[in-house]
Design brief:
This protein is an alpha+beta fold and 390 residues long. The protein is built from ten helices and 18 strands.
């Protein structure tokens, strides 16, 4: 059995994250950054709870220019936050719709040292504010002396390169999920629905040691599928169908994200050719993924193979993305992203193409950028389309 990674992180991990972020804050003249979302709060504090599923209460964490994070949170979370490395914790008896922590938050911000007069808030691409828009507007009124600047790119960049401890968790869930995919052909059945087949895989992932499978989609159809984000549905699988299953499964809050394709009974030549093209495109992306190259270089290597292989288009909009504490993270493998790859970066390679009208073929693997190039974290898909019941 493979060793199970230790849960959580050492104190030094959080200290290193803050030191790296605070260097970026100095460079961008920010006195404080306001966090409101679960991944951001968890990354800098270690506060890990399922209670984020409740939309009733907002949660705030301030990252100051020096020192530790500061929590401004509902009283219900005080004990959980106190169990992290955060010491400065302010609470209010939420929910209070008339003033749900805004006065308290503004007061804490007002008492922070000011060097630049600027507060960072994640406002750009792939960011969001988990608080009522009206409350955010009210907060800005209550701290008029602070200029607000977009901190989204800085936050993305800090999370971009993973630590050895983060990589260990991602590697573990990739290997565990690879085992589940390898075993899946033994349980896939013609005459049952996408939903029934995927249900068995969810159970298998949990029994193998996964924590949670928040993302498990399926698409199927005769000779191809037309969507990779819907399902599983009650559509019953028949001979001649192809099925894709794509999963984002977690261990200790870290994701894998890759898919596998299966034919049932038989597969026509067009489907087999499409599988071969995206398989070879994945190989090309893997070879291009090395330190100093860019996400655009990786995209170009994959797209060149698919274009030569007859791709009619790509409705996904990108050919992979970052991976870690979220199912999809910055950056994207696109024609114009141009993010430079560094050792410690975890990416997905996801070449996908429309090979006939209404028919797609998509592959996805998870890789780690190392000093010497790329390393597969997911176990490579079969070089030829697996046929169930052949």
């Amino acid at each position: 059995m493979r060793p199970v990674p230790k849960r959580g992180f050492e104190l030094s991990e959080f200290e290193a994250r803050m030191q790296k972020l605070q260097a970026g804050m100095h460079a961008q003249s920010l006195d404080v950054i306001l966090l409101t979302t679960e991944p951001d709060v968890r990354y800098y504090t270690g506060f890990f709870t399922q209670f984020w599923e409740s939309p009733t209460r907002p949660w705030f964490v301030l990252l100051p220019l020096s020192g530790k994070p500061i929590a401004v949170i509902p009283e219900i979370g005080a004990a959980g936050m106190a169990a992290t490395w955060v010491e400065d914790i302010h609470t209010w008896p939420a929910p209070q719709p008339s003033d749900d922590g805004i006065t308290l938050l503004a007061d804490v911000i007002a008492r922070l040292p000011k060097r630049f007069g600027r507060m960072g808030v994640p406002l750009g691409h792939e960011s969001s504010l988990r608080m009522p828009a009206g409350d955010y507007q009210r907060l800005l009124v209550e701290i008029p002396s602070l200029e607000v600047a977009d901190a989204s790119l800085l936050l993305h960049q800090i999370r971009y390169v993973k630590s050895p401890a983060e990589i260990e968790k991602i590697r573990y869930i990739c290997e565990l999920t690879s085992d589940a995919f390898d075993a899946l052909p033994l349980s896939l059945k013609v005459g049952e629905s996408e939903r029934q087949n995927c249900h068995r895989m969810r159970i298998d992932l949990l029994q193998r040691g996964a924590d949670y499978t928040p993302y498990l989609i399926a698409g199927s159809g005769p000779g191809g599928y037309d969507s990779i984000i819907m399902g599983p549905t009650d559509r019953v699988l028949e001979a001649g169908d192809v099925l894709i299953i794509d999963t984002g499964t977690t261990y200790d809050g870290y994701f894998c994200d890759f898919d596998r394709n299966f034919g049932f009974g038989y597969a026509d030549d067009a489907l087999r050719r499409a599988y071969d093209v995206v398989y070879k495109a994945t190989d090309a992306g893997f070879e291009a993924a090395k330190p100093g190259a860019t996400t655009t270089d990786v995209w170009a290597a994959m797209w060149m193979v698919m274009e030569a292989g007859g791709a009619m288009g790509n409705s996904v909009g990108r050919l992979g993305h970052g991976l870690g504490i979220e199912l999809t993270e910055w950056p994207s493998n696109t024609a114009d992203d141009r993010t430079v790859l560094e050792p410690g970066v975890v990416l997905t390679l996801e070449p996908g193409m429309e090979f006939a009208s209404g028919k797609q073929m998509v592959h996805e693997e998870n890789i780690l950028i190392t000093q010497d190039g790329a390393e597969l974290l997911s176990r490579r898909a079969a070089p030829e389309l697996p046929i169930i019941g052949s």
